[in-house]
Write a structure and sequence with these properties.
Pfam family, one: DUF8212
Mean pLDDT: 89
Strand content: 5-15%
Number of domains: 2
Strand order of the largest sheet: 2-1-4-3-5-6-7
Protein name: HET-domain-containing protein
Number of strands: 9
Low-confidence stretches: 294-308
Number of helices: 10
Structural class: alpha/beta
Largest sheet: 7 strands, mixed
Distance between the termini: 41 Å
Domain Heterokaryon incompatibility: 21-125
Shape: globular
Domain DUF8212: 235-258
InterPro entries: DUF8212 (IPR058525), HET (IPR010730)
Length: 308
């Protein structure tokens, strides 16, 4: 795991037992910094993403020392000297590194001392959440769903790096905006929600790369699978559901609405093409299989499931 030292602004690598770290949740924008950019000061100076990282380091350092944001300067912040940012702490030129990171990312957010959600399109000059909070692009992105659920502690920052609330203090508004039940946000017990319910939380979200609409849900379902960029979003989502079927005794995976599929699609199988088709599955309950899925095979382009 690579972490950025908030004082030296240099990456350090930890094979096991990383030190306490803060983690950033944000919606990507133009000019984000890659791992390779960190070795090129001339490139960094031109990228808005570098300003974001420097500001994040400065914010965490202030919280750690208690100079500002006294409400965040508790004992859990004092040992934090590192941060993790998805733009520059993953080597995206390495297929192996990218795959390992995405399959581990949910746990990395879970293990962070604190997660700060930076909402660049929100301004809260009085330190109170404005009406623009729910309109933030942060609520529309695929990856930020796991970043909302996984951390033990999640704090919100506006576009000027002002703290204006937490997942706990804003839980009613977050629940209304995301349709995620209060008890899930408060207690972090999403594992009690059935497959269809969890899929419905991702129904209105988008990702830049089509395959990521499946990959961003790996941690929420606790499954792993190889990443195959180029396979397409539908194929990636089918593979995700196949992995879920191996682990869950829950027929709600089939509780999706196919009425929106175009007539030219052809044969409609048992699995949904994307989370969007679970938009109305929020109130579905888990129903165990009468026997468990044993295997799957392809037959004429369709997936056939066999049960014991």
């Amino acid at each position: 795991m690579r972490l950025l030292n908030i004082e030296t602004l240099k990456l350090e690598e930890f094979v096991a037992d990383p030190p306490p770290y803060a983690i950033l949740s944000h919606a990507w924008e133009a000019g984000e910094v890659t791992l390779q950019d960190l070795d090129r000061p001339d490139v960094l100076a031109l990228k808005p993403g570098w300003t974001k990282i420097v500001n994040f380091c400065a914010f965490v350092n202030r919280c750690r020392k208690g100079n500002r944001h006294a409400e965040l300067a508790d004992e859990s912040m004092s040992p934090v000297r590192y941060i993790w940012v998805d733009t520059c702490c993953i080597d995206k030129t390495s297929t192996a590194d990218l795959s390992e990171s995405i399959n581990s990312m949910f746990q990395w957010y879970r293990d962070a001392a604190v997660c700060f959600a930076y909402l660049s399109d929100v301004q809260c000059p009085e330190g109170q959440p404005s009406v623009t909070f729910e309109q933030s692009r942060w609520f529309t992105r695929g990856w930020t769903l796991q970043e909302l659920l996984a951390p033990k502690s999640l704090e919100f920052l506006d576009g000027s790096w002002r703290h204006f609330g937490s997942r706990a203090s804003l839980v009613d508004r977050v629940s209304q905006r995301t349709r995620i039940p209060l008890q899930v946000l408060v207690l972090g017990e999403w594992s009690r929600s059935c497959i269809a319910q969890r899929m419905s939380w991702a129904a209105g979200r988008q990702t830049t790369r089509p395959e990521d609409i499946a990959y961003c849900l790996l941690g929420i379902f606790g499954v792993n699978m190889p990443l195959l960029y180029g396979e397409g979003g539908e194929r990636a989502f089918f593979r995700l559901q196949e992995e879920i079927l191996k682990e869950f005794d829950d027929q709600s995976i089939f509780a999706w609405d196919a009425s929106g599929i175009d007539e030219t699609w052809g044969t409609i199988g048992a699995l949904a093409p994307s989370p969007a088709y679970f938009a109305d599955s929020l109130d579905v309950e888990a129903i165990p299989f009468m026997g468990r899925p044993m295997s799957s095979t392809k037959s004429g382009g369709s997936v056939v499931y066999l049960w014991r």
